[in-house]
Hints:
Layout: H1 4-18, E1 24-25, E2 29-33, E3 39-43, E4 52-61, H2 63-69, E5 78-80, E6 87-90, E7 98-99, E8 105-110, E9 115-120, E10 129-132
Parallel strand pairs: 7-10
Antiparallel strand pairs: 1-4, 2-3, 3-10, 4-6, 4-9, 5-6, 8-9
Amino acid sequence: MQTEPQAMRRWYYFLIKYSKGNNVIAPGLFIAGTEKMGKGVFTSVAITAGSVIEIAPVIVMSEKERKLLDQTLLHDYIFEWGVAGQCAMALGWVPVYNHSYTANCDYEMDYSTNSIAIQTVRDIGSGEELFINYGGSWDEQKPVWFDTK
């Protein structure tokens, strides 16, 4: 019988090898309310550093479409993408990950499959919320466009 860490390692291998940009979310992740940020993504299982926990497809939009999006609430959920002026809206649970300057996850954009992968940057315990840094790199300290207090 497999232990939980062995089963998770097999899942991560599958995730990377077979997803090809399709939406895949690791077992144990769930969305729940937070005290200050609305909703967030959490884990009910321990996750080791370097684990890919989600691969989500994106919808790529032109500079013209981005100007329209910038006038809506969706502005806070889009990513800079590829060619200057383009943007992308991630599907899956990517829009629900909250921001932190001490993020425990990072994201990587794959322009060839039009997808975003979320990967842990440290070991994460059961019950923890999963965060990305909206400034780009998981450890970026440059201020973001909204008040984080």
